[in-house]
Amino acid sequence: MRKYKIPRIPPTATKSVRFPNDVIEEVEKAIRGKECTFTAFVVEAVKVALDNLREEAENRWN
Fold first, then answer.
1. 0.90 cut: is pTM over it?
2. Rounded CA gap, 30 and 45, in Å?
């Protein structure tokens, strides 16, 4: 069994990003009624995109 560790909140920095209005509307619709903020949604989406790019790069070299 894995030992429970109290999670640490990673250090953050503020970045200002402009989104097209239609993208904002789609994200807000997707998270409506869920325990998710716009920021959390965008951060997770960026992490997934970075993972995908990393996997693609690894596959190119293999």
1. no
2. 13
Instruction: Please name the amino acid found at residue 55.
Output: E
Question: Kindly report the CA angle at 47 between 53 and 30, in degrees rounded to 5?
Answer: 115
Q: Contact at 8 Å (CB) between 9 and 3?
A: no
Residue by residue, DSSP assigns 28-41 as HHHHTTSS--HHHH
- pLDDT tens digit sequence for 14-53: 999 999 999 999 999 999 999 999 999 999 999 999 999 9
Terminal alpha carbon distance of the chain: 35
Q: How far apart are CA 30 and CA 41, in angstroms?
A: 9
pLDDT band at 61 (very low <50, low <70, confident <90, very high): confident
